[in-house]
């Protein structure tokens, strides 16, 4: 029997074919190459109930919170990318235990990936390790295990983190306001700010909180909606403890939220998204002003730096209609950002940001201007309530248990009296285990493997100081062809327009807007403006179809085929957007030839494992609402570790089909922005990550800016059948 990495009791979670969920306590054992579970702690040669072979192709899918008879469990699913239907699902009653298991399994997967890189590819990828002692046998009672990411390269909390799954996303757009980087600051540092001076001003200090008011372009907001306000405070508790309280809708909420009257679950969409009904207790002229209630989407995630994000946005639901005696308020955006801080005198500290942008509706808003601001400040004061709740309690021994959620009745609430709202029948989407498996095929994580989260390793041999070595070594990827390419021979259905206010077009984004690893990155973690691109972006296509469009470079007359006829090499990036109508935005990058020995040439000719570990995306939203800019952020992401990338090696071209639909979190990110796509200007930079001193500095393959894209303007491509003899690598 091989050495045990981790073991302990967990919950076996699943669904029967009739649609009902079940949970069983099982004893899980993680070894170096195997994950198995038993009915009881194994002794001698007991045969496990089920096993899963662990190798470098495995992934850990975070399915979030699932409800079973009113109790919530945190669910993880482990599967192999090459055998997508063979998976092992486990769960825990507290988030800490689930996260420990998640990181232990991922550490074993990382060890296999590293060994594959060493044995099968001479270009070794140095990946971030979480700081856990993988050689030590530990048990599930060891709650002092390190289950959050260690210090990253820039000491920042990033928006795109390694193996973080954020769920399928809400049914409608929910804006993530928690992760914006100020454009000017982003060119200097990737550190998140508690607030951005460009978009917030301090309104007042109240109850030990800083209250900020948003400074925003009003064109992006409904006229009836007030400006967003945000409370920022420090709470002496762990992120998990605060998260448990924020997610609760039971009696404990009365102890810290003075605006809470009643809350219930309307529908559980997935493990990270739910529809909630919420009644507000507002103390402003209650004899004259009707009480308010809410029906909204609540969407949450946990980042690998240990922070939690909880987002709110109103939506209509057939089972949560208007209630007699209540005015239905509307949340434009809101939620909590719960971020860990350094402990103080041995006590944990957490920064809590609570943002709310709400229209309380009714006559009071229109005739009494102070009504909305008074009620909004009252809601934001819940951060002070959290602080006082924990400051008056020393109970830290037991791990917080995921709260019980009261369920709303499945029948239409609008036809019932208000007393019947307190029913506890469960309204949940019923799906068989086969349906769940098919709907979550090959689910991966976008921003799960961040460039910022890696521990860059320096070779053991002695090297020259950076100042002396900079002139001695020159990366092959830095060499550029001297001759320019005639761009007039290429065309795409999305036009190029360099005018600043142009709409539904693309242009070349300045490489200096993106920061990449410098030549001395392995010594000082420094980054520099990217500068000139390695390849020329010659055309962009915007396609739509009833099915996913793969291998679009085979289309006659496309830029890749034209380049091939001219003896040029093309890199085609096909970003596939899922939905009832499938969309593809295709970027054609062209160069005269690949420099032998360069990192780009090695990427093109390598196997898929190497490509997945190196292809990097740096996103940015230079123009758009503040909320959307926060949602996207500007943290680099390794695409092959976040979503499924299919590589097609053709004649003088390499096509990369980036399947956004393969990732639950990528679907969630799309849900945040697709509704306002016509108001956005988005920058994307693609590059091959440098993982050794010889490969530095990093260089961009290319960068593009797409402006105010219209979904209705996409065209249906004419694609010939994919030839069976097409060479692939």
Automatic annotation (TrEMBL):
<dbReference type="InterPro" id="IPR045096">
    <property type="entry name" value="EDR2-like"/>
</dbReference>
<dbReference type="InterPro" id="IPR011993">
    <property type="entry name" value="PH-like_dom_sf"/>
</dbReference>
<dbReference type="InterPro" id="IPR023393">
    <property type="entry name" value="START-like_dom_sf"/>
</dbReference>
<dbReference type="GO" id="GO:0005783">
    <property type="term" value="C:endoplasmic reticulum"/>
</dbReference>
<feature type="region of interest" description="Disordered">
    <location>
        <begin position="433"/>
        <end position="482"/>
    </location>
</feature>
<dbReference type="InterPro" id="IPR001849">
    <property type="entry name" value="PH_domain"/>
</dbReference>
<dbReference type="InterPro" id="IPR009769">
    <property type="entry name" value="EDR2_C"/>
</dbReference>
<dbReference type="InterPro" id="IPR002913">
    <property type="entry name" value="START_lipid-bd_dom"/>
</dbReference>
<feature type="compositionally biased region" description="Polar residues">
    <location>
        <begin position="433"/>
        <end position="443"/>
    </location>
</feature>
<feature type="region of interest" description="Disordered">
    <location>
        <begin position="129"/>
        <end position="173"/>
    </location>
</feature>
<dbReference type="Pfam" id="PF01852">
    <property type="entry name" value="START"/>
</dbReference>
<feature type="domain" description="START">
    <location>
        <begin position="200"/>
        <end position="362"/>
    </location>
</feature>
<keyword id="KW-0256">Endoplasmic reticulum</keyword>
<feature type="compositionally biased region" description="Acidic residues">
    <location>
        <begin position="448"/>
        <end position="457"/>
    </location>
</feature>
<protein>
    <submittedName>
        <fullName>Protein ENHANCED DISEASE RESISTANCE 2 isoform X1</fullName>
    </submittedName>
</protein>
<dbReference type="Pfam" id="PF00169">
    <property type="entry name" value="PH"/>
</dbReference>
<feature type="compositionally biased region" description="Basic and acidic residues">
    <location>
        <begin position="134"/>
        <end position="145"/>
    </location>
</feature>
<feature type="domain" description="PH">
    <location>
        <begin position="3"/>
        <end position="110"/>
    </location>
</feature>
<dbReference type="Pfam" id="PF07059">
    <property type="entry name" value="EDR2_C"/>
</dbReference>
<dbReference type="GO" id="GO:0008289">
    <property type="term" value="F:lipid binding"/>
</dbReference>
């Amino acid at each position: 029997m091989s050495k045990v990495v981790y073991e302990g009791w967990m919950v076996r979670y699943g669904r029967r074919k009739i649609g009902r969920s079940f949970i069983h306590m099982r004893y899980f054992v993680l070894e170096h190459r195997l994950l198995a579970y038993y009915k009881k702690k194994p002794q001698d040669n007991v045969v496990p109930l089920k096993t899963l072979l662990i190798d470098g192709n495995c992934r850990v899918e975070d399915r979030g919170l699932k409800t079973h008879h009113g109790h919530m469990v945190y669910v993880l699913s482990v599967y192999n990318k090459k055998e997508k239907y063979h998976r092992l699902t486990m769960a825990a009653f507290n988030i800490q235990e689930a996260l420990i298991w998640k990181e232990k399994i991922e550490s074993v997967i990382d060890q296999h990936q590293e060994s594959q890189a060493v044995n099968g590819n001479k270009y070794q990828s140095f990946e971030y390790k979480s700081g856990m002692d993988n050689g030590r046998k530990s048990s599930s009672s060891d709650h002092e295990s390190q289950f959050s990411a260690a210090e990253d390269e820039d000491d920042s909390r990033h928006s795109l983190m390694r193996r973080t799954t954020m769920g399928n996303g809400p049914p409608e757009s929910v804006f993530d306001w928690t992760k914006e980087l100020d454009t000017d600051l982003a060119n200097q540092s990737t550190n998140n700010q508690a607030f951005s001076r460009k978009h917030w001003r301090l309104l007042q200090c109240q109850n030990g909180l800083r209250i900020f008011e948003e400074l925003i372009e009003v064109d992006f907001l409904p006229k009836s909606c007030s400006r967003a306000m945000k409370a920022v405070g420090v709470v002496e508790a762990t992120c998990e403890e605060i998260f448990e309280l924020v997610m609760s809708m039971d009696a404990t909420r009365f102890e810290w939220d003075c605006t809470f009257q009643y809350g219930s679950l309307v529908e559980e969409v997935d493990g990270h998204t739910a529809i909630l009904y919420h009644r507000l207790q507002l103390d402003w002229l209650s004899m004259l002003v009707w009480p308010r209630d809410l029906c909204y989407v609540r969407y949450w995630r946990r980042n690998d730096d240990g922070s939690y994000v909880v987002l709110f946005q109103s939506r209509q639901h057939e089972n949560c209609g208007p209630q007699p005696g209540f005015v239905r308020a509307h949340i434009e955006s809101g939620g909590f950002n719960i971020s860990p801080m350094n402990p103080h005198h041995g006590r944990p500290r957490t920064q809590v940001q609570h943002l709310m942008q709400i229209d309380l509706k009714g006559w009071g808003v229109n005739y009494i201007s102070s009504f909305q601001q008074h009620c909004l400040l009252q809601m934001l004061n819940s951060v002070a309530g959290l602080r006082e709740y924990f400051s008056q309690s020393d109970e830290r021994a037991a791990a917080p248990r995921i709260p019980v959620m009261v369920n709303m009745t499945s029948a239409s609430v609008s036809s019932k009296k208000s007393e019947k709202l307190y029913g506890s029948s469960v309204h949940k989407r019923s799906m068989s285990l086969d349906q769940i498996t098919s709907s979550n095929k090959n689910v991966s994580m976008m921003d799960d493997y961040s460039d910022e989260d890696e521990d860059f390793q320096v070779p053991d041999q002695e090297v020259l100081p950076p100042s002396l070595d900079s002139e001695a070594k020159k990366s092959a990827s830095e060499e550029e062809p001297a001759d320019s390419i005639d761009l007039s021979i290429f065309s795409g259905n999305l036009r190029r327009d360099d005018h600043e206010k142009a709409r539904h077009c693309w242009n070349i984004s300045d490489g200096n807007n993106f920061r990449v690893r410098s030549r001395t990155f392995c010594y000082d973690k420094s980054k520099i403006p990217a500068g000139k691109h390695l390849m020329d972006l010659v055309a962009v296509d915007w396609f739509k179809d009833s099915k996913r469009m793969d291998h679009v470079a085979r289309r006659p007359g496309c830029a890749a085929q034209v380049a091939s006829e001219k003896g040029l090499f093309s890199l085609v990036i096909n970003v596939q957007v899922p939905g009832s109508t499938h969309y593809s935005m295709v970027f054609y990058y062209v160069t005269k030839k690949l420099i032998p020995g360069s990192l780009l040439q090695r990427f093109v000719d390598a196997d898929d494992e190497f490509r997945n570990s190196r292809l990097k995306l740096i996103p940015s939203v230079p123009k758009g609402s503040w909320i959307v800019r926060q949602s996207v952020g500007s943290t680099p992401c390794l695409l092959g570790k976040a979503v499924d990338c299919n590589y097609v090696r053709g004649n003088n071209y390499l096509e990369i089909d980036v399947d956004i639909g393969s990732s639950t979190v990528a679907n969630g990110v799309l849900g945040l922005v697709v509704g306002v796509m016509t108001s956005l200007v988005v920058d994307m930079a693609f590059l091959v990550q440098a993982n050794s001193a010889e490969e530095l500095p990093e260089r961009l393959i290319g960068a593009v800016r797409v402006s105010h894209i219209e979904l209705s303007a996409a065209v249906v491509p004419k694609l010939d059948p994919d030839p069976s003899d097409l060479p692939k690598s």
